[in-house]
Amino acid sequence: MAADYNNFPSDKQTRSGFFSRVYSVVACIPCGSVVSYGQIAWFLGAPRAARQVGWAMRRCPDELPWQRVVMADGSVTGGLFAEERRMRLEEEGIPFLPDGRVDIDACRWDIEYCMADGEQMR
User: Fold this and answer.
1) What is the pTM of this model?
2) How far is residue 96's CA from residue 46's CA, in Å, rounded to a whole number?
3) What CA–CA distance (Å, rounded) separates 8 from 50?
4) pLDDT of 5 strictly over 70
5) Average pLDDT of the segment spanning 77-104
6) Other beta carbons within 10 Å of 105
7) How far is CA 88 from CA 7, 83, 93, 95, in A?
8) CB of 18 within 8 A of CB of 52?
9) pLDDT, mean of residues 107-117
10) Is 3 exposed, middle or buried (0-12, 13-18, 19+ CB in 10 A)?
């Protein structure tokens, strides 16, 4: 039996379309703001696909502001790139909590304002 990815596309072509939609949202995130993987998934109509958004972000084109996508609790992820991500966020003026997490409540972007080609993404 195939795994249930809760509205996540299963075939490669559709999955590539999902990744493109993720990148369209990431391109909208303004400097000085962050969003979580789960916010992006919810906005794209796949509320339980935060992990799949993470898969897309692993392949995120370099020209996109990939550093602005963080965990829901503000944790900075990125494996080998975690320190670079933190540095980029600090350069943008993103506030951090004493424990090293992004103060996501102070800089969470209202994803509802995401537009692509002048139209609401959803």
Assistant:
1) 0.82
2) 29
3) 10
4) no
5) 93
6) 9
7) 32, 9, 9, 12
8) yes
9) 79
10) exposed
Domains of the chain: 12-120 (1.10.10.10)
How far is Cα 115 from Cα 122, in angstroms, rounded to an integer?
9
Which tokens in the block code for residue 47?
């509320």
Crossing angle for the helix pair 50-58 and 12-28, nearest 10 degrees? Answer: 80
For 106, the 3-state DSSP assignment is helix
Compute the mean pLDDT over every residue in the chain, rounded to the nearest whole number.
Answer: 85
If we measure between CA atoms, which residue out of 113, 115, 97 comes closest to residue 105? 97
- 3-class DSSP string for 24-74: HHHHHCCCCCEEEHHHHHHHCCCCCCHHHHHHHHHCCCCCCCHHHEECCCC
Beta strands 69-70 and 35-36, pairing class: parallel
In the predicted structure, residue 64 carries a pLDDT above the cut 90 = yes
CA separation for the pair 116, 98 (Å, rounded): 36
